[in-house]
Automatic annotation (TrEMBL):
Binds 2 manganese ions per subunit. The lineage of its organism: Archaea, Methanobacteriati, Methanobacteriota, Stenosarchaea group, Halobacteria. Keywords: DNA damage, DNA repair, Endonuclease, Exonuclease, Hydrolase, Manganese, Metal-binding, Nuclease. Mn(2+) 1 binds at D9, H11, D50, H183. Nuclease activity is regulated by Rad50. This is DNA double-strand break repair protein Mre11. The keyword Magnesium does not apply. Residues 398-423, 431-444 have a biased composition (Acidic residues).
Length: 462
């Protein structure tokens, strides 16, 4: 019998709602998964991608992750992982660094055997490159086999990857597919194989209303019984409380009624999301947010869904001007390189003096990849649904009512660009984050130094 924890979409480093506390929450949630693994003495922790929210995590996030992985290593529990779209870089991957440190194993087409299970890996692959994929895996002599992959697979929401094709063309018969990218936990049986998502470990968008958690997967035909060879159980994590306050205003009702509804809830240290619908008088979102803050909320956001009289009807949200900008950027269908440039220009973590050099570096990284300069809306298939905006959401799946605006659920179930990509109500899978693995010239690497903004790249380590 082999028991593993299946997790993914931890998005360490995501400063949701621009809150440093929320940033720490994402690291703490990953730490809680590891603590459970140690307490339960499982055989391995399997991570299905998007360990980090950004391909250039800042140093505190990197060091915090290393500290968590050391706890796992000290307990003698292997950490097996694949690369997701959010953290993917053109050269070496972060999990490669952790492997060099003895803290992780990057899964691939060769089997990694733990107990009586052979684990294989399939990193995130942009839609435009999947036609060339050959699902060729080396043979194994274990009793069971599992494929760990990152992407939006059928039959789940936001799917763009044919699960039956993967299973049919693979030269290994898999007992389970342990997936990441869709932030909504789910499972289904496809062609006799269990396929499952554990969901994200923290709410990356407002659409992720269900509790967060992970899967405990047991490979044991005798213990499971019947025709099944795999048992999948979901376990909950104790994460930051989200309080959802729907307010439908009647005629002549306004701010007083909204305050009354907000006061009905315990807001202590919670993320409070107020959604206003109906009729009534104008409401100033900032006033409601200040009221919730005074009542003890960690973060408060107000979205007014009411329509206004104009030539056309549209929803108005004052929760975060950045949400409107992100929505417009998504409509533009920028290429992967364009999204890189947009992220650098609008990033809060890059000093103005460093923007020019950062943009130059990011464009240079893409020069060997012509597809990175193709617009997402030209039919090339580069754009996935995004996760609540991990501020772009679906980044894999990963959706679109962005976090600050009360947004999605995820398929990472949603895709998006780097920082605030998970807020939207689509999936987080981010094809825009290419996972090309060609390496840079060693001399070029040695000339690069750690950015002054605190972010680090693989070239600083590999």
């Amino acid at each position: 019998m082999t028991r593993v924890i299946h997790t993914g979409d931890t998005h360490v480093g995501y400063q949701q709602y621009h809150s440093p506390v929320r940033r720490q929450d994402f690291l703490d949630a990953f730490g809680a998964v590891v603590d459970d693994a140690v307490d339960d003495d499982v055989d391995a922790v399997v991570h299905a991608g998007d360990l980090f929210h950004d391909r250039r995590p800042e140093l505190p996030d990197l060091m915090g992750t290393i500290a968590v992985l050391r706890r796992l290593a000290d307990a003698g529990i292997p950490f097996l992982a694949v690369v997701g779209n959010h953290e993917s870089t053109r050269g070496g991957q972060w999990v490669d660094l952790f492997e060099r440190l003895g803290l992780a194993t990057r899964l691939g087409d060769a089997p990694t055997v733990v107990g009586d299970v052979a684990f294989y890996g399939l990193d995130h692959v942009p839609v435009s490159r999947r036609d060339d994929l050959e699902y060729a895996f080396e043979p194994h002599d274990a009793d069971y086999a599992a494929l760990v992959a990152h992407g939006l697979f059928e039959p789940f929401a936001h799917a763009d990857w044919d699960t039956e094709t993967v299973l049919a063309e693979s030269d290994v018969d898999f007992d389970a597919m342990l997936l990441g990218d869709n932030h909504t936990p789910d499972r289904a049986e496809v062609a006799g194989t269990w396929v499952t998502y554990p969901g994200s470990t923290e709410r990356a968008s407002a659409s992720e209303r269900e509790g967060r958690g992970y899967n405990l997967v047991t490979f044991d035909e005798t213990a499971v019984g019947g025709d099944d060879r795999v048992e999948i159980r979901r376990r909950a994590l104790d994460t930051r409380e989200f309080v959802f306050v729907p307010v439908e205003l009647g005629p002549e009702e306004g701010e007083a009624r909204v305050r009354e509804r907000v006061r009905e809830h315990d807001l202590a240290d919670a993320v409070v999301l107020v959604e206003i619908t109906g009729e009534g008088d104008p409401v100033t979102p900032a006033a409601i947010e200040e009221f919730a803050d005074a009542e003890g909320a960690l973060v408060a956001r107000v979205t007014d869904r009411r329509t206004v009289e104009t030539d056309e009807e549209f929803d108005v949200s004052f929760a975060d001007p950045e949400a409107a900008v992100r929505e417009r950027i998504e409509e533009m269908g920028l290429s992967a390189a364009g999204l890189d440039v947009d992220d650098a220009v609008r990033s809060d973590s890059i000093a103005d003096a460093n923007v020019r050099e950062t943009v130059k570096g990011r464009v240079e990284e893409r020069l060997d990849d012509p597809a990175a300069f193709v617009a997402a809306n030209d039919g090339k298939g580069e754009g996935d649904a995004e996760p609540d905006d991990p501020e772009k959401a679906s980044e894999g799946g990963e959706s679109t009512d962005i976090d600050d605006a009360g947004g999605e659920d995820g398929a990472d179930g949603e895709e998006s660009t780097e920082d605030d990509a998970i807020d939207d109500e689509r999936p987080i899978g981010d094809d825009a984050l290419d996972d090309e693995s060609s390496t840079d010239d060693e001399n070029e690497r040695s000339d690069r130094s750690t950015p002054a903004d605190g972010q680090v790249s693989m070239e600083d380590y590999l």
